[in-house]
Structure prediction request, 569 residues.
Amino acid sequence: MRLQTLAAQHFRNLQDFRIVPHPRFNILIGYNAQGKTNLLEAIYLSANLKSFRTHQNEELVRFGLQEARVVAEVQRGNDTLTLELKLQTRRRLVWVDGQLTRRLTDALGLLQVILFAPEDVALIKGQPSARRSFLDHAVFVSRASYLSILSDYNATLKRRNAVLKNDRRDAKLLEVYSEQLVEHGAEVIGARLELLRQLRPLFNDAFRNIFGAKLEASIRYRASWADQVDLDAPPDANTLRCAMLAAIRALGGDELRRKQSLVGPHRDDLEVLLDGTPAKAHASQGQHRSIVLALKCAEILLLKDRFGLEPILLLDDVSSELDSTRNQQLFSFLASLSGQVFITTTAREHILLDQDQSAWTVHQGGLTPAD
Amino acid sequence: MSNQTDPIAELINLLAVLPGVGRKTATRFVYFILKQDAEYVKDLAAALVELKEQVGFCAHCCDLTRESPCRICGDERRDHQTICVVQSPQDVLAIEATGEFRGLYHVLHGILSPLEGKGPDDIKLAELLARLSNGVEEVIVATNPSVEGEATALYIKKLLVPLGVKVSRIASGLPMGSHLEFADKVTLGRSIADRRVL
Ligand SMILES: Nc1ncnc2c1ncn2[C@@H]1O[C@H](COP(=O)(O)OP(=O)(O)OP(=O)(O)O)[C@@H](O)[C@H]1O
Ligand SMILES: [Mg+2]
Ligand SMILES: [Zn+2]
Prediction:
């Protein structure tokens, strides 16, 4: 999968542009606050129809204007398609090959991108919710039906919590919602575990390639309520349902006291270990960066394997904090992939590529070909 | 005091609470009514009063009806051992239109909705339980295919199965989140025929 052209009008601080990206590497060089991340954001929006930085359309439209437009011509296998996104204060509209889509989700995932943003370095150290989002996103891109599985679970969870909060609580109704939570929850966890099973070897490889051969990195799914179940083995749905239900029974009193659901995938977490030690507490900054990069690269390899289409990789300021050896290893690993990559940098010398690339200088929102 | 309030504003306020009617539409209604002759306006007012005075719950199925038992509950040719449970009177009309179902109905007038604070006492569940002594063998739950609809169905199952009643659920050919009353006849008809035991 690759962008053949990308154009935008009135988008953030970017001067209206149309570029023809290189099928492999595209380098965006510029000082701070010139618009490099904004350009990646425009690509990300074409794929996900929402930004990674804001929920507010206004922020995406150039100050003082009403509407921004992003147009991407995408090559998917033997097909090409045109995605056009219009951002207005209150709405987002999407045209696919000139046809206005009825629902935004109709256009979701036609273009697939994997983003590495500087904030992502905190993925392993930060809140569990960020790791769950990473995981859920990875499941979703490899299996579109996961979106409805997850939203059924979340809807059930919300209602079960409302039952727990209600003082006139009906025991039978709580029982019904427990069973429904377990039903949908087991589906969510099953999908996550299956993804991890496939991701694991790819992640190990990617990490070793980027960070060096000495360390063994592994990922584990953590569910505090499931201490009796070996989650690495992938258990079947029935085992998961039984374990969840048993945990709910065991914790029932706590749930009533705290008036919220304490068992289920909304409480679970992902743990990365380096040579058996939790990375969360012990890894260095460079190791954190390498872990997250390896996770994202693993996601790309998985999608390539699954659909034969490699998503586009967006790397925002990826080289800072990596020592020169690791940076070199990162670039030789990137060169071993075959998909399209967009990389931003403040310093050209970080980019260790000698072929297959186009470069632009980003200055005050303007793009000029470099070289 | 009522003779001091503006009758136009008063009627706009009254109409604006109707579902699907905002202040703008309510205002259009009011000016339309003002332009009609006195006869029409009298008939309209009388029809409204009569509606409320004459239409009430059927003592059996809780559907809205002028006479109790309603036309369906009073029909001896229908299967009185099978009851189809629905959320609203409109759903009765929708299922009747399919011609697939020859049993009786029970209208809950709502659904168990934790988010809106609607519990078992807020819908016509006790009335359903009261009907079971009369030889009812199967209850088909035809609540909407939503999270609340499923939960209400399972709740009814928990209530009725211990009493020896078979409880089934309409097949989910209907997309999650849809409304029975807007489903097309064929889909709705098939989902009753293909119901599954809960
Ligand atoms: N809606 C908007 N209209 C105009 N300018 C905007 C808008 N939104 C953001 N900007 C400007 O865009 C600039 C930031 O661009 P961007 O985040 O892409 O910088 P960058 O090149 O990635 O910098 P860094 O290297 O610091 O990450 C800021 O100067 C900001 O004021
Ligand atoms: Mg930036
Ligand atoms: Zn009746």
